[in-house]
Amino acid sequence: MAMAMALAALLPCPCVLCGMHGREALCPPCRAQFFGAPAAARCPVCADPLPAGCAVLKCGACVVRHPAFDATVVAAPYAMPWDRLVLELKFGGQLAHARLFAELLADAARGVLGLTLPALLCPVPLGPGRLAERGFNQALEIARPLGRLLGIAVAPRLAERVQETSAQSKLHGGRRRANVAHVFAVPERALVEGRHVGIVDDVMSSGQTLGELAAVLKRHGAARVTNFVFARTPPQRGEQ
């Protein structure tokens, strides 16, 4: 295993975006192109993009109805070219993308002024059927390297999905909320009570799944919940 890792570090690999050979999954030119400029302003709670020059502390939706989670860290918008990589991970089994997502998320977290890191990371769980079909949980594949990079313990079974649900991407509005209602459980309250928990997932759109899981964690005594999500899709108005 050690020899394989050493060889992987020495052998060139193609950049996931442009295909240029190097020693990193994202080559320096692509990294500079997509992450060289200061990040766009986002609401610190839901990570929804804020208008340019906006000086408010959080978006209007979070002021009116604060979600169960307290903060959200994202690495990239869910747009070209990142949407392709997310789909390749989730449906194509390109697990190397998860390590890249974790690296970019860790960089984003380090760039958030005053961010308090959680005590442990909880990947959004899949139901048994979806897990058997896919063969892996993309949230867990991101959480493991993210935990190593940030020095945070990962708790793969901190929460569980107690019933199968339809894909959130196929639903809208109230159907999204109903789809994830009462689907999560926390088997051991003692692991959660009084602690800051970080939820890890690949994509955040309406925030309903993350909000429901955060609410369950809070009901089991979590002191604070922060989302760590690779890509953020701006929610449709009224879906926050």
TrEMBL record:
Give the InterPro entries listed for this entry.
ComF/GntX_DNA_util-trans, PRTase-like, PRTase_dom
Give the coiled coil ranges. Answer: none
**Annotated signal peptide:** 1-18
- The answer, when asked if Signal is one of the entry's keywords, is yes
Protein's name in the database: ComF family protein
Domain Phosphoribosyltransferase: start-end pairs:
154-234
Q: Which SUPFAM superfamilies match?
A: PRTase-like (SSF53271)
This protein's species is Pseudoduganella lutea
Which Pfam families does the annotation name? Pribosyltran
Question: Gene3D superfamilies of this UniProt entry?
Answer: 3.40.50.2020
Keywords for this protein? Signal
Per the UniProt record, the lineage of the source organism begins with:
Bacteria, Pseudomonadati, Pseudomonadota, Betaproteobacteria, Burkholderiales
Q: Which family does it belong to?
A: Belongs to the ComF/GntX family.
